[in-house]
Model the fold of this input.
Amino acid sequence: MSLDEYSRREFKQVGTRPRRPDGVDKVTGRAMYGADASAPGMLVGRILRSPHAHARIKAIDTAAAEALAGVKAVITAADFGLPDDDFTRDVQDNCMARGKALYDGHAVAAVAAVDAATAKAALKLIRVDYETLPHVTDVDAAMAPGAPVVQEGRALENVPAGMSANVTSHCEFGHGDPAAGFARADRVIERHFTTAATHQGYIEPHACLASVSADGKADLWCCTQGHFFVRTLCSAILGMEASQLRVTASEIGGGFGGKTTVFIEPVALALSRKAGRPVKIVMSRDEVFRATGPTVSTSIEVKIGMTKDGRITAGEAHLRYSGGAFPCATVEMGGQAAFAAYDLDHVRTYGWNALTNRPKEAAYRAPGAPQAIYAVENVIDELCLDLGLDPLEVRLKNAATKGTKSSYGPTFPAIGLVATLEAAKAHPHYTAPLAEGQGRGLSCGFWFNFGGNSCVSLNVNTDGTVGVTEGNPDIGGSRASISLMAAEELGIPYERIRTIVADTASLGYNDVTDGSRVTFAVGLATIKAARAAIRLMCERAAKIWGIEADAVEWKDGAAVPAGPNAPADVARRDRRGLVRDRRPDRRPPRGQCRRRRRQLWRPSGRCRGRPRDRGDQDPALHDLSGCRQGGASRLCRGPDAGRRGAGHRLGAERGIYLWRRRAVAERGLSRLPHPGRLGPAEDRHGDPGNPQSRPSLRGARRR
Amino acid sequence: MVRVRLWGSLRRAADGLEEVEVRAGSVKEMLDALAEAHPGLAPQIARGVSVSIDGVIYREAWFTPIPPGAEVVLMPYMTGG
Done:
């Protein structure tokens, strides 16, 4: 996926700490989060949730709620269709229970009313006839024979026969012969670990505003990590074409993976469609914990063998994960990541996913990996203690490097674990004396990089500033990092760039903001867009100057003639379009050029004077800048100074003149651009904050 | 021809083979050829897979070319957070 081979490069922008573009709005309370959206005629949506961990829904009576004054719509699962594919159907069934409530807090009905009090009262009028069922919330208990079955018939073809009906998938990764590796070990330790279904605990509860119009077009504003994916899911669930649903992402108050799917958005859309008015749903904190996805709960056995000198001879892990009441494949990620930090000859991981009566799992920072790595790293630490080895040296001895066959299959390209460990080893904190009650720990981790689908639009504005449009909600400062990368490539100040997050109707598809992909993938797209813009501008500059495209290069935010193919006179042209004669005896006295030009030209563009050396055939300067009168051109300096149309006969200058004329015609510019700096960063022009810009700015105004 | 390495549990769906060889020039051609040559792999391919080509993981990159001699590893469909 890399844009090009890695090479050392001195960055001017990347690595600096600029002011974040979203910073002021967020610290002053101006930023618009999910719950801040509003629309005329907006209704309040509320959701009725199951009080049972597992119950069959025999009937739902909504008549009394619908009859309540102020209630505009009531929906249940009956108001949704039945998607064909399992994935979408599971998402929909998690948003609104169909047939069974699968966990405490599972949505069973929803209302839209004129205010919150009416909506709350309406929920109390909905009668749900439940048949409570036995439930199971522990993954090991769910895999045991005779466990309550959360959902029937959800096992994939890879599940061995005879397992509990709650087991939905099995996976296996690794290579070599672990048994042989354990036989060569001086010490083998096997331990069992469990981890809870921890919630991501983002500060901002889920919130959305949906508006479906009578012609079927819909708008949705929501806090999410991926509004394009929201569009995919919601349009599939609502039976809409994606083009008819525009999703706009709000600012986001944390997500950590938990906002990579939908919980209330399809419900709000269905309510709005039924009520014919906008509907807003804001979850309470209680609802967030009861009905949105935490990470998986796990039960893990890890076995590792090690020699006395710290070489790991084999590793094996059995991972049992539960993603709640719906199938999930998170255990595959744990199985691949568990031992991936190490270069092992014999390694194997076995994974199972089992259903439990818990909320549907959502991603949580490298989903599935930290749990498995936590177990592995604990066993390695215990081995180090037992064998009297330095835990850092042991990890260095076993670290994966370039060329290591990873535990999940591929051979690693360059990988930075050794460098990281060496840096930790060299850090003073690693050897600093510990006071009583202090400890020092060390752990290696691993995660992948994937998800490259990204679309970025980069526009050079008429004043030379730049707008970047991206399609990933900014969950950690990505607008700043994207702006920095654009600035770095274009060679212009960070402040000249504004990056925004566009809605789904304004940009091509983007993958979700997940897996740490955005800075990398969207950054690559931004760099490509910037380079494309540079290429186009250089090509245009070449045409303006009448030289070959390869004789133009981009330097410090501007196109400049360069290289062996650049004509000498073009190479000597300054940013004002002046062709300077560098011969010492022909060079104007130092400091006189600008003063002379100011004497010569007035804002009207009319020539008010002649240089004293007029007619002396000295080609020291041919100035076309700002020189226009009656649609023709005049030279203000040089042998043809002041003559109408003289610019047409000056070879290399002609191209500049024609371009500038065209620019005026096409862009409606009030003044001609400077051909010597044809980039977006006329950073010495018009930037009051840049001291270097002031003389040029004043000069331009005088013209 | 492309040699494709399968992850452990997928090998049972390919007659126990750790590596299979198919004729393909792109990711989509490879997946189509795998599903045709080894029908047992078809359900997993339909659900979604990722592909590592010389250590770089691709997801939904059907038209990514596979260079001759590249190391190709089939992986589960990757999701993040």
